[in-house]
Write a structure and sequence with these properties.
The protein is mainly α and 88 residues long. It has one domain: Helix Hairpins (Orthogonal Bundle). The protein is 88% helix and 0% strand. It contains three helices and no strands. The protein starts with a helix and ends with a helix.
Length: 88
């Protein structure tokens, strides 16, 4: 089972690096907002994998609530940017 966790963490790290590149080189504000949302989702996923590795699911509700708050924040920011850039 340790091999599965190692492979999962490795893939999450690679995805995180690609997301950081997209965050830094994004052309528009919406690209950067989406990249930030994906990055936080990867952090929550890595946290959940770590909880699975330790066989401790005590913080799963906290991770879900944090992911939901970040998602709502991203949607709000995307709508704000969309309204602002539409009238240019």
């Amino acid at each position: 089972m340790t091999v599965v966790f190692t492979i999962t963490f490795t893939l999450l790290c690679v995805a995180g690096l690609l997301t950081v590149v997209r965050l830094l080189r994004g052309r528009t504000t919406l690209d950067r907002i989406i990249a930030l949302d994906v990055f936080v989702t990867l952090i929550v996923a890595a946290t959940c994998v770590g909880m699975g590795m330790q066989l401790d699911g005590a913080n799963i509700a906290l991770a879900a609530a944090f992911a939901l708050l970040v998602f709502i924040g991203s949607i709000s920011a995307a709508r704000l940017v969309e309204k602002k850039e539409r009238y240019r």
